[in-house]
Amino acid sequence: MKERIIIIGANGQIGSELAVALRQKFGTGNVITSDIRHPETLKEGEIFETINVLDKEALKSLLTKHQPTQIYLLAAMLSATGEQYPQKAWDLNMNGLLNVLDLALELGIKKIFWPSSIAVFGPHSPKQNTEQYCIMDPNSIYGISKLAGERLCEYYHHKYGLDIRSIRYPGIISWKTAPGGGTTDYAVHIFFEALKHGKYSCFLSAGTELPMLYMEDAVRGTIELMEAPSENIRIRSSYNLAGISFTPAQIAEEIKKILPNFEMSYVENDPRQAIADSWPASIDDSYAQLDWGWKPTFDLETMTKDMIRNLKTN
Ligand code: AKB
């Protein structure tokens, strides 16, 4: 079957790179990007639609017009911004998902990707090698909305047969588009600041270990999950996915190997510290490995080299 894909929330960090990879795979004209704001530039043949995922009628018209076979729903408010606007975060993250699930049912669109996050875990979840199934008591509004979203996805799969697939993304590190409003954003900002000013003031403490993933691996993993045979996808809530776990001190050391004059300092009492402290340090992703062959390729050293090389040359 010829695939036709709509990405909702395509201008963000993950969407902008996923769109490139999906257009390469399925053809430029078969991947429609959409977001609440028009992007600055569009390449020849690229189709973009302005949409607010909370406007269900407009979303219905868009889906009816393009008749996609797959939807990637990436519109969301991340953890740090979510704490500033909890009602808005809940509204966007929950009602955006519900609108897409209900319209997918109504319009017969079977296959959906929706991202969850390591934020579904909480202070009582195990810190190291956090398993797929364990205590989950998220205490950020973002984490609460992602956990509720996971339960909805599984429910819509079992009750209505929607082919929903999802990954619990760790912090994503990339050089093309900056992330916005997350707790793991420091691991991207650090590279930009290291090259521009030779120093970075980190809002998380030196020893805060968090799970991260390089964009190239994230995009490949997401498409691999979406391409896997349906019968292999045993988890319809969301898959744990591991890449690289490190602390701010460790990434600073790695950057210093390439930029020896780089200086790192730390700001205390940032509200993002409490969010980070409630999240896992590392993730057990055995189900993703077993079910659809997940394997990350970048470690801290190769990711750091690749980030700095790209930021210097692009
Ligand atoms: C955030 O920090 O909020 C996100 C995430 C881990 O989901 N990057």
TrEMBL record:
NAD-dependent epimerase/dehydratase domain residues: 5-232
One GO-annotated biological process of the protein: L-threonine catabolic process
A GO term, aspect molecular function: L-threonine 3-dehydrogenase activity
Domain of life: Bacteria
Pfam families: Epimerase (PF01370)
Family: Belongs to the NAD(P)-dependent epimerase/dehydratase family.
Protein name: Nucleoside-diphosphate-sugar epimerase
